[in-house]
Amino acid sequence: MTTTSGSTRLGDGPSDPYASSRRTTEGTVYTVTGGDWDSVLGEDVTDERIVVNMGPQHPSTHGVLRLVMELDGETVTTARTVIGYLHTGIEKNLEYRNWVQGVTFVTRMDYLSPIFNETGYSLAVEKLLGIEAPPRAQVIRVLCMELNRISSHLVAFATGGLELGALTAMTNAFRERELILDVLEMITGLRMNHAYVRPGGVAQDLPPGAVQKVRDLLEILPARFQGIDDLLTGNPIWQDRTKDVAHLDLQGCIALGVTGPILRSAGLAWDLRKVEPYCGYEGYEFEVATATDADCWGRFLVRKQELYESLKIIEQALDKLQPGPVMVEDTKIAWPAQLALGADGLGQSLDHVKKIMGTSMEALIHHFKLVTEGFRVPPGQVYTAVESPRGELGFHAVSDGGTRPYRVHVRDPSFTNLQATAAMCEGGLLSDAIAAVASIDPVMGGVDR
Amino acid sequence: MSVTPQGSPPANPNPDGQNDTSAPGSISDDPSRADVKSSAVRAPATRAAGSDMFGASIGGDTSGFGGLVRKAPAGLSTPRPFGGWFDESVDALQESFSGFGEVVPRVVVDRGELTLHVHPQKVAELCSHLRDSEDHRYEVLLGVSGVDFPSQPERLHVVYHLLSMTYRRRLRLETAVPESSPHVASVCHVYPTADFHERETWDMFGVVFDDHPGLTRILMPDDWDGFPQRKDYPLGGVPVEYKGAQIPPPDERRSYA
To answer: Which in A97, A336, A338, B196 has the greatest CB count within 10 A?
Structure first.
């Protein structure tokens, strides 16, 4: 290895030990050469000990996650996660929009589970307001959340399979996910980033034919799940790659604040849908999937079981659907929207606009103020949590009594679970580190927010 | 009221002297208004009053309702009984934790949630007790985050969300430090999960967690200046043209807060 640092530096620009630099008419230009680890590490460098950077764009790092691993041969001695590459300032942006507009931002955080983000946020705003969404809206929320849980777990199998070399698992799981996204698109208008669940209810009622479409989906999905099951569960390579890999016991999970399938794979049946029901989950019959392996295999089994449990919940939700409003009746909170599909997409129904414009000036003023100003939320702070596919998704919302959030902090499960990477990887093989990160199933949009 | 032409905010944020503290809705120095419940402060709008597109000094609200401020005495605990399991739990803590009165000056119950306001240097000690004590068993720290109240002398609030899986209870700890000395005791050795969360709070608010094993930025680049989630840190943005009209960036739009 040769050290080239500073050797071609011209002029008196700032010295950088890792990159040579030269002055040009455009300013100082640095040339990063690499190969200078010996100058960084000093004398005690052996041939076996190397530091490897994986990412932030490596195909098996789940998006823009960067892993800095120190290897002794093929054994990982330290593993550090470096995050922040997808930081978009969503929490800051929320403070400059009204409470309803916040939904549009939070749905983009953990982009694989948008409905959970929206519901968690809406529940926080509703708790601040002291209101509750009507029963039909609650059922629709549960329906959409469970559909979303399936699509999210399918991506976990898809990317996890891809990372461990099971490419067919990837193609199949993404294919089945698309079936669910089709239904969500029919219900909400978008495949992802729905902004469908709003404080006080949901944006609009289920469109005609949606229930039948979900029922059709319930017919198809079990066989499709079986297909993925057949590909992975009995596959000896898949078992070898996941069993006894990335072990994290219950004590470790609790110390590291890990929730969701990872915690349940360690044997604790902790599921907020059961222990702190919200949106009427107490009225649904389902099992909390657990495993006792506390390894990648256990997490796979838990997620797989949750697919079937979600189907059970969806079926019950369809039976619970009763006619009724999908938004609170309080016109100081609910937007006076009556959406209809027009030539240019979904928008305010023309009849409704005609009625407002033609017959009620007060309604027009009210509508205008509600949409431009938003509603005021009584001062205070709340914390609400929902069980997202990755664990406890918490919203800490603070209001100063205004029409905009004073502060919203999101406790994203991926952010916290990622801390377990070191505990899972260190002492194991490099290839197992990939399995470990895949079993955590982090979504960097949620981690970095 | 003088109206400034749209699109050119007045250079003087107080064009016609309407920004006196007696105007409804403006930020008052009156201590009786300084704090409503735990965080219910009439904090300043995220932008200076009076810099609105229409030059209104009370946040742009023209209805008059924006000036309604709920008054509450500052810094008081919620009167007992709290209801639910709160009384029993706080009593148990009072008995078993020595110096409870100094460490926890305020106990607030709001919307069915219990908040203990804690002395910033005692947070770790209290967490350790709450985790290990048989009466509490808060095994899990869910997260640490901050809230910035620039109008308060101790503007940087740090909030901890604890969860007891044994009792299925949740508890919030809140502490506040001044900007000049933003030191809070780190809880990393009690709850290892606090590592990332405290780094994020340092990154976003500039709160220093003493004894944290490696307090570095986590979301922002290492060489970033400033703390983005503070209220005086601008959101940034550029005006965009939409259908012929200039739309100002979000932090310069009308605020009704």
So the answer is: B196
